[in-house]
Structure formats: C-alpha cells, structure tokens
C-alpha cells in the first residue's frame, strides 16, 4: 500500500505528457503552402508545393528567381531544409521554391514514370513516354500561375533526380528557352537504351549553367546492378561540352561514398549553391 502514492504520481505525470503531446501542432515548413493546378489537356490535377523567401513579405519591390523541383514529396523537404541557412544568412541568393508533385489520385511511381520519360517503352509496367505533354503543362499552366501570383524575375532553375534528371535533359535538348539553369541528379540517361543521348538537337546558343551530380558508387561494380549512372553522367557532360552547346557551362560532381539512394541531397545543395552563391 505504501507504493500507491508513487503510482498515482507516475500516472498523473504520464497523462499530463499525453495531453501535451496531443496538443502539439503538426510541423509545417515555414512560409510554404500547397495549391492545386489542373492540366487542361489531361484534366489531371497536380499539387504545387510553394515556399517563399524570408524577405518576401517586407521587400515588396523585390522579385525573385524560381527553383522548380520534380518529385516534390521528396525534393521539396530536402531543398527547403538545405537552402534555409545559406539563403537566410546571405551566402546564397534567395529564391522561390516550387515543387511539382505527382498527379492527384495516382501512385507516385506511375505518375513520375509517365510524365518524366520522353519515349514509350512497352517493357515497363507503367505507362511511359508522356514527357512532352507534361512539359507543355509546366510551360502553359504552372509558369503562368507562378508568374501571375508571385513576384518573380526571369530566372528559372530546374532540379530533377533520376527520371526527373532525364526530364531535365529532355527539356534542355528540346525546349532550351524554358529554363536558364539545371541541377541534374543521377540522370537516367540509360532509359530506352540511352535514347536521350541520341536525340538530334539544334545548336543551342542560349547561356545555360548545368550542374550534374552522381554518386561514386552508382556503377555496375559497386551499387547499381542494372545501370552505370556514373558513365551516363560523364557521357551527358561530354555532349553538353560539345560544339552544339557553346554557351553552356557544365559542372560534374562525383559524390564519394554515395549511391543512388543517397546522392541527391548533396547534388541539390551543391548544385544550387554553385548557381546562387552570392559573390
């Protein structure tokens, strides 16, 4: 019986902690919101994750570059967190971050495989080859919405990883006016037997900066049983350094110790820091 007071104290403390836990608010990324955009052609709905810079509300006369991300559920959290300190401390130019998510109601893999691949491949379980349509949606629906509702300047940066990186390469080759800069993480240039590297492209005289990041372990010998991503990244770097891209500056980073699952966070922050570092 002498232990009863201690039992009551224990239960009281734990019940108080439980109430406090239930009252705790869900964490939200500061200065961010989600809007939904409908593709008028496919009638699919795509959520956009949007984060504004810290100075946005009090520097009313300032306009900002926009960083557009694919695979928003993954990349938006990574890029938001990684750029927070350098942007807030003035080491890196502030930018609006826009993550384009997967079509509403679909499973992530089916949406990204359909939208990020530029040519059909019947060997895949999911639909492929609708990148052209997705690019049209970004250009005709996403860009106008962002430019109408936010103070943006003319600078656009594309960030994509894996198949998202493949989409970025396709945009650069076929619609060079859409983006000024690219951060391409472990781009899947292997898709459909390296078809993207075989595309005949017109001379691109635009000024571009392209950052390519890949994990050093993304090779057949180490960690990628099907595709050598390092070799693919080097082939892409070689093509972008050729005479068809005289005004394109390319930087390739091979990330030591990283594989396909871990390379992107380093690619994202190193690539964006390279592009937006304040001199």
Proportion in β-strands: 15-25%
* Mean pLDDT over all positions: 92
The general outline is: globular
The total tally of domains equals 1
Poorly predicted ranges: 6-10
> CATH top level?
Alpha Beta
Number of helices: 8
CATH topology: Rossmann fold
User: Level of helix content?
Assistant: 25-40%
For the record, the CATH architecture stands as: 3-Layer(aba) Sandwich
The number of distinct β-strands equals: 8
Order of strands in the sheet with most strands: 1-2-4-3-5-6-7-8
Q: How far apart are the termini? A: 72 Å
Q: What does this molecule look like?
A:
With 279 residues, the chain is of the alpha/beta class. It is built from 8 helices and 8 strands; from the N terminus they run αβββαβααβαβαβαβα. The protein has helices at 4-23, 72-88, 108-116, 131-149, 163-174, 191-198, 229-240, 263-276; strands at residues 32-38, 45-51, 64-69, 96-100, 152-161, 181-185, 208-215, 248-255. The protein has an 8-stranded mixed sheet, sandwiched between helices. It is globular and about 50 Å long.
Quick recap of the structure?
It contains 8 helices and 8 strands; from the N terminus they run αβββαβααβαβαβαβα.
What characteristics describe this protein?
eight-stranded mixed β-sheet, 8 strands, 279 residues, Rossmann fold, single chain, 40% helix, alpha/beta
What is this structure's SSE topology?
Layout: H1 4-23, E1 32-38, E2 45-51, E3 64-69, H2 72-88, E4 96-100, H3 108-116, H4 131-149, E5 152-161, H5 163-174, E6 181-185, H6 191-198, E7 208-215, H7 229-240, E8 248-255, H8 263-276
Parallel strand pairs: 3-4, 3-5, 5-6, 6-7, 7-8
Antiparallel strand pairs: 1-2, 2-4
